[in-house]
Task: structure prediction
Amino acid sequence: MRPGLLLTSVLLATVSATASGQATHAARGPARPATSDQALIANALSAAPASLTAGATVMGHDGRVLRKGTSDWVCMPDMPDVPNDTPMCLDAPWRTLIDAWMHKRPVTVTQMGFGYMLQGDMPVSNVDPFATAPTSTNQWIPRGDPHVMVLVPDQKLLDGLSTDPKSGGPFVMWKGTPYAHIMLPTTAAPKTP
Result:
């Protein structure tokens, strides 16, 4: 199968699974700031479809296992020290990338990876993975829409995709860095002219 066709097929399958999961999360209501372990677990599980979170391990940001899972997925609750509600569920390739990013180490992506943030994202630059505030050139995103993050092992697959987070569709975040990935919004975002 051609790489472009494979990537398109994977993205379509992800969108279908995510749309199904959003209906479940809409019924749960918005996530609340978490304090107890049970609240942290509930918040973490709001990051992805229930079919995925059912077997996921839940870890606190302090490294504690809040709930042992049966799959390779790991979900983490909102980070209370950053704005917005930011729980996430990550597969192994994404956990490797996040660890490298947090420690400012290089990383080599060797297989596709998926991460879910169905509650939204923290303020972040679309251009500079280490930016901590907006500038006139870093495409600052103050509140990211709910989305799925997709890693690809060959960054050439990102060529031709938009890098504009306001395009209304998938876009590449942090293009040209080892942390480049596809952001796949799961809610309609208004297009800007």
